[in-house]
Amino acid sequence: MKIKKNILLIDQHDKNGFWGGKFGGSFIPETLKKPIEDLEILFAKLRNNKNFLLERDKYFKNWVGSPTRFIKLNNLTKHLGGAQIWSKVVSDANGGAHKIYNATVHCLIAKRAGKKYIVGDTGAGYAGKMLSMAAKKFGLKCKIFMGAKDIKRQKPNCDAMRKNGAEIVPVYTGSQTLVDAVSECMRYWVSNCDKTHMCVGSTVGPNIFVKICGWSTSQISRELFMQIKKEFGKIPNKLKLINCVGGGSSSFGFWNEFMHYEKKKVEFIGVEAGGPKKSKRHAAPLTYGSKIGVLHGAMQYVNQNKTGQIEETESISAGLDYPGVSPLHCFLKDVKRARYTAASDEEALMAYQLITKYENLNPSLEPSHAFAEAIKIAPKLNKDTIIVVNSCGDAKKDRDILKKKLGKKYESSN
Amino acid sequence: MSRQISLAFEKAKKANRPALLTYTVAGDNTKKRSLEILNSISKSIDICELGFPHNTPIGDGGEIQTSSYRAIKNGITMNDIFQIVKKFKKGKHSKPIILMGYYNMILQYGENKFLNKCKKTGVNGLIVVDLPWPENKVFAKKCKKKSISFVQLLSPTTSKIRLKKIVKDSHEMIYYISMLSTTGGRLKVSPKKILKNYFNIKKINPKKNCVIGFGITEETISKLKSADGLVVGSAICKEITRSLNNRQNPVTNVSRLVAKLKKKIL
């Protein structure tokens, strides 16, 4: 198993859709074969269509707000006294998180496919919020599937979805979180695939959804690549790109453009959600060696029991609270291109407090996991090392959790 | 092939009626109860489909999900399920049995170990919801080697070329999904239209036994009786749920329902 050069990672799968011969694929009911095949054909056509790319770039620039900032965290760097810490502030994007890229592209595809309805899943509510925004922008009717537990803990994003005219469908099955929302959304699509387009909210699901999402979020590293070159005159010799990993859409997009560099030069560090310190449950299948299994149509490392039932996860961050992980990351782990680790709920909260104390930045609980790792390793490194953390979401949605965990003073900042 | 499934179809054809297939979830609501249900309905039916439950199903509607969660909550394991099959097949009302479920359960049990166990306990066929053609080619061949029929699924979205290829690769039985739906949806397509699609499939190879499933209830079953076989699943799971909620015995209620279904297709 090896990464091939001169070909995008999203295209390095075999004819059955497997990366490295074993991750991904399309484990789907017969009914979805045709709609998925149609989507594959359409996407293959559109990604080579000049007008489509121009349209995408126009919306990314004028509506999403591209490029998002690339800034040095001077105070934090000084405080930690080691590597330089920088951040790509992807939460600058319209709506406050990276999910807008995938949502925009899916709506553009839905329009080209002549579909009037679009459905999607959401955990933290960002994928749902962005899809509802994009759907409104492009005149599509939108339904969002969301776990009942997540609806409670991510109220601000739910309010936003409703304001955008989307219908939120609460999912009461199983753990009532993202995993159940994705299942329910796929079931809905099985029943309505003739008129409805489905947007999977991350680089997960059947092969084509992994590809579309990865292709969309890669905008992040396209911008970063130019910004780094402009800032340093070249790609620095010791660059570390740290990103949280739930489904893996922001991290994949953050790394894609740097894929072919030696890992000694550009290291990828993915930080999964370790869950509460005292709990055995987690959402870190790559870090804690979960077995390979099938979840939501794709082969991947996934938290499951011996018999193959998918296990419930636990994390303070709804966006990372997913038992599986993108086949792309499974592949990057196995070929050792990326390193994966986990941060606990407590570590993420500590990181959040430190960042907001020293910097004018308000990362949500998801990227706070990535910052936790940066804070851990930065003091051990010298100042020639450049750490870049993707601040891929804004903490506005975490208002209630932060207030509960950290007290009132964190309410005002949000 | 042991041909037990084919024989069941032949028997029904001789009686000038479609074969009746039921779907129940193994372990719903307990291991013992689900075996009792199978034993009590087996005289009315021709083939049993027995579900091995999975907790992230992407093709099941609400009723079957409820049954599955009940069974999983009561701790059903794959080995328990094989025991149910073994006991049922040894009983005096034994009928051909088709296990149905999601691929991850087979993968974690081990494909070969799973198929050996199927053969040993007397499983006649397999339906794997999320292993479509052509991805299922290798696994279907393995099944055939063990004399187990791999049941291919077809749906209204399946293209013509695909239909032909799948029918060609199919074993004793094929399963036509009546409409775009998860299991248990309300029949949103007219029986006439379903049968039209069905006969188009039959034309490809009239010898293949083809059943229709999804959305079949007491109300709809008689309108589809020109098919080779009809599958009722969600309506039965719903009856189990209703019985449990009303503190009634699901065994008697389900066998009453199945007897009624049978009458409608005679």
Helix content of chain A: 40-55%
For the record, what CATH class of chain B applies? Alpha Beta
Write down how many β-strands of chain A occur, each being a DSSP E stretch of 2 or more residues: 14
Under the CATH scheme, which architecture of the domain at 66-96 and 218-412 in chain A would be assigned? 3-Layer(aba) Sandwich
- Number of structurally distinct domains of chain B: 1
| CATH superfamily placement of chain B | Aldolase class I
Structural class of the helices, strands and pairings of chain A? alpha/beta
Folded structure, characterized:
The complex is a heterodimer of chains A (414) and B (266). With 414 residues, chain A is of the alpha/beta class. Chain A is 43% helix and 17% strand. Chain A has a domain at 66-96 and 218-412: Rossmann fold. Chain A contains 16 helices and 14 strands. In chain A, the strands form 4 sheets. A 6-stranded mixed β-sheet of chain A has the order 3-4-14-9-10-13, with helices on both faces. In chain A, strands 7-6-5-8 form a 4-stranded parallel β-sheet, with helices on both faces. In chain A, strand 11 and strand 12 (298-301) form a beta hairpin. In chain A, helix 9 (207-217) crosses helix 11 and helix 10 crosses helix 11. The termini of chain A are far apart. Chain B has one domain: TIM Barrel (Alpha-Beta Barrel). Chain B is built from 11 helices and 9 strands. The longest helix of chain B has 16 residues, at 250-265. The interface between A and B is large, with 36 and 39 residues.
